[in-house]
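Quick one - inputs below.
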Amino acid sequence: NAGVTQTPKFRVLKTGQSMTLLCAQDMNHEYMYWYRQDPGMGLRLIHYSVGEGTTAKGEVPDGYNVSRLKKQNFLLGLESAAPSQTSVYFCASKAGEESDTQYFGPGTRLTVL
Amino acid sequence: GQNIDQPTEMTATEGAIVQINCTYQTSGFNGLFWYQQHAGEAPTFLSYNVLDGLEEKGRFSSFLSRSKGYSYLLLKELQMKDSASYLCSIMDSNYQLIWGAGTKLIIKP
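Output:
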């Protein structure tokens, strides 16, 4: 039982390049989330999903797209990376009940030059 | 608007007690969470409060007063491994988590 995993762990991009971050969970959780964490700020929700085939925008969705084709996977895409997207990205999942705990992946540290 | 305030940084001594405060103003309230995050690692769940009062879990306790929009995390018998950031988060009316910026706790020998 690996919990929540993220790939890659680190990545450096040039402005304008694209990439996809992969999140996978083996806990059969319905809800999945993508956050970004920047110094001096709280975690900010980018996009989330309440089940396979569904996605919704969070607080800071611009410049990102997501897909949830399989229940266990939640992909975050950057179509044209910008320096403002330099951040640490965390994926999280929870079983589905409103009060359930969110479980986090180890994070992806992304630098956009 | 929505706002969660925590001190940016606190310092305490090994073996002592420290209280980390969190005040909030959010659109709706469905519970308050505390998470611990060691440097370079993912946040991990510590506690959940939805009713007023104190929840105790080993060396850690969390208190909530919904009428005052206030919570605190109490850490007893501090150990060096408790050096970490402590994140306060509120589950709002849409069951989304709103996060404070976190309190960096430094433990000195």
